[in-house]
Amino acid sequence: MTRAKDMAEDNAAGAGLLAQAARVYAPRSMTSHTSDTPSPLEAARKLVPMVRASADETEAARELPRPLFEALADAGLFHLALPRAIGGAEIDLPTYVQVIEEIGKADASTGWVLNQCAIFGTYAARMPREVARTIWDTPRSVVSNTPAPSAQVITVPGGYRVTGRQGFSTGCRHATWVAAHGQVTDNGVPRTVKGVPETRYLFVPVSEAQLLDTWHVRGMRGTGTHHFAVDDVFVPTERSVHSAAAPLLEDAPLYRIPRTLCFASGDGTIALAVARACLDAFGELAGAKTPRATPALLREQPIAQLTVGRAEADLRSGRAFLMEAVRDIWAAATAGAVTLDHRAALRLAATHAIRLGVQIVDALYHAAGATAVYEDHLLQRYFQDIHVISQHLQGRLAHYELVGRHWLGLPVDQARL
What we know:
By secondary structure, the chain is α+β, with helices and mostly antiparallel strands. The protein has three domains: 3-135, Orthogonal Bundle (Butyryl-Coa Dehydrogenase, subunit A, domain 1), CATH 1.10.540; 143-242, Butyryl-CoA Dehydrogenase, subunit A, domain 2 (Beta Barrel), CATH 2.40.110.10; 257-416, Up-down Bundle (Butyryl-CoA Dehydrogenase, subunit A, domain 3). It contains twelve helices and eleven strands. Strands 1, 2, 3, 4, 5, 8, 9, 10 and 11 form a nine-stranded mixed sheet that branches. A two-stranded antiparallel ribbon has the order 6-7. The longest helix is centred in the C-terminal third of the chain and has 33 residues, at 302-334. The chain starts with a helix and ends in a 10-residue tail after the last helix.
């Protein structure tokens, strides 16, 4: 089946899904699981036509269309990483990255929103169950976070008062809560834990925050990664969690893996998913385009054949390395024995996946010629998306140096692994 035929069929199927989402994916309670409930991977695959059919609207609106968000949520995908004890899937990491891969191939922005919101849910494993249940109480309960602890957090009786303008809050337009992030001060003095400044996430109802329209970018536009602001909002102590050192209350394999590496495994997977989608789109173009001043189709040109061959090799190699690192750290987490070597391997694999994604998409973009410069061509979207992904912390070139230091026996900042 050709990519064009795939997209035509997906668009037709997706249109029906958009109209029927409320019926097909009716909201379920957090604890309603039946024997006929599809697996997460099956649920993701069923939603692929809808994700792909919604991609243009996602891009234009700079956020997920509401029916798409609700369908993803009602299928349980935003709660994949929540503990079973509060009704989540507590998914294994190898299956999780396959879910992200399926969604990411259909639309990178949708995959990114899913990864960011789902993995942040692992904080529920470090909170009392009754508190976590109040936050993630329905499948559509989603928390949008912010990475930098830039908010002002002041201790007051019973909790904290938080103020700040915070950035990069993926999916905030559909969130029920925003997680403000800041360093705690007590009577004007920064509070420390074992000599380290105490930083906390504080869960604020989205109705008590101001969502700011800041996500004006060229790629990954549909992620809706806007800023938000909170102004002297009171947050009770129990609705906060130490962002770096909260003790693990739900001791399951997924929560023994550093959260940053769970994020990284999804981000790297999405980069490779973009590369796969780009290869498919290039194949369609190469079979239809005769470049100017050449006698044959693009696919008959040796340079195009070389580009595709190398891209396929890079993509499969990068995916194999990433999946191997994910499987290895999962096995170690299951055995309760995650080492720095496991962490270093996954850090390297995720970073390399992102860098390979850039390399593959760039090569295909250049081979496509002027056709790829138009906004309405998929290759242009993939080009823009992969270059925004490459700017993320998880894709930093410095990670190669970090892992190299570790494997040369030199001391490293373990928090970065």
